[in-house]
Amino acid sequence: MSARAYPTRMRVSERGGSGRRTPHAGQNPRAPLQVHNSESIPNHMPTAYAAAATVAAYLIGSLSFAVIVSRLMGLNDPRTYGSGNPGATNVLRSGNKAAAVLTLLLDALKGFLPVWLVAQFGGRFGLGEGSVALVGIAAFVGHLWPVFFRFEGGKGVATAAGVLLGINWMLGLATLATWLIVAFFFRYSSLAALVSAVFAPFYQLLIWGGGPIAITVTVMGLLLIWRHSANIQKLLKGTESKLGQKAAAAPPAAKHDTHHGHGHHRHGAKR
User: Fold this and answer.
1) What is the DSSP string of 120-137?
2) How far is CA 181 from CA 67, 69, 203, in A?
3) Is the separation of the CB atoms in 213 and 61 below 8 Å?
4) What is the chain's pLDDT, residue by residue, as a tens digit (271 residues)?
5) In angstroms, rounded to a whole number, what is the distance separating the alpha carbons of residues 28 and 8?
6) Phi/psi of residue 104, each to 5°?
7) In 3D, which of 171, 170, 193 has the Cα closest to residue 182?
8) Sequence-separated (6 or more) residues with CB below 8 Å from residue 77
């Protein structure tokens, strides 16, 4: 069973008055009262609300903060050096720790915020646990394939952490603790992410049970592993970069060239 319940808000009263339930004439006053939703919602509206929330979550997830922060701070596009991945770990390879931390926090926030909003306020619109799970996977997919950046996104570690924290803070903290332990002892961000991606679904299933949330956590874990396929090969060959290690060919901060024929960024092969 999930650690958080997402009930539709209802009001029940046995006393008379506006909006309150009283027995009909001839009805046994001790008979169980029927519970009515105090906020009547047409049957089709929860589906529309869920669809709107899912699209909004995908668009929020599509904000590639590694690229946005790098541009605002005068750094090179993270897709042009290191692993080519637009994520906090690759931004760290530029040598700018502030940019990396800001990227990490914003990537996590864009996963947390849509999920938290639906979990906290979706009940009044008929949105339950299934909608929370759908919004979570939408924000995560938005980071992987962002519509605003030609569908060239990151690997989703920070965003997945934000989604887990929004769904269930205990699940999120357990997964983050797993990441920190592996990263501390082995100094490989990719290895920490892979181990966390495997453990998170087991935490959910063993402690809180199955359901839509378990499906979302499992799908995110599988996508994380798939997005780290190149890192897995490097780990096996012993060529994977460790945490804090600068990119071998990280170029200096680039100015946007306005000369003809030189205004296009060349995105290195990643992924």
Assistant:
1) HHGGGGT--HHHHHHHHH
2) 28, 28, 16
3) no
4) 444 544 444 333 334 444 444 444 555 544 443 433 435 566 668 899 999 999 999 999 999 999 999 999 999 999 998 888 899 988 988 889 999 999 999 999 999 999 999 999 999 999 999 999 999 999 999 999 999 999 999 999 999 999 999 999 999 999 999 999 999 999 999 999 999 999 999 999 999 999 999 999 999 999 999 999 999 999 999 998 887 666 555 444 444 444 444 444 444 444 4
5) 28
6) -60, -45
7) 193
8) 67, 70, 71, 86, 254, 265, 267
Looking up tokens 């359901």 gives 211
Phi-psi category of 128—alpha, beta or left, where left has phi over 0 and alpha has psi -120 to 50?
Answer: beta
Neighbours of 49 (CB within 10 A): 18
* CB distance 94 to 242 below 8 Å: no
Cβ-based neighbour number of residue 11 at 10 Å: 12
Task: DSSP letter for 26, please.
Answer: T
Q: Other CB atoms closer than 10 Å to residue 60's CB: what's the count?
A: 19
**What does the domain layout of the chain look like in residue ranges?**
45-237
Would you call 24 exposed, middle or buried from its count of C-beta atoms within 10 A (0-12, 13-18, 19+)? exposed
Short-list 219, 213, 202, CA closest to 132: 213
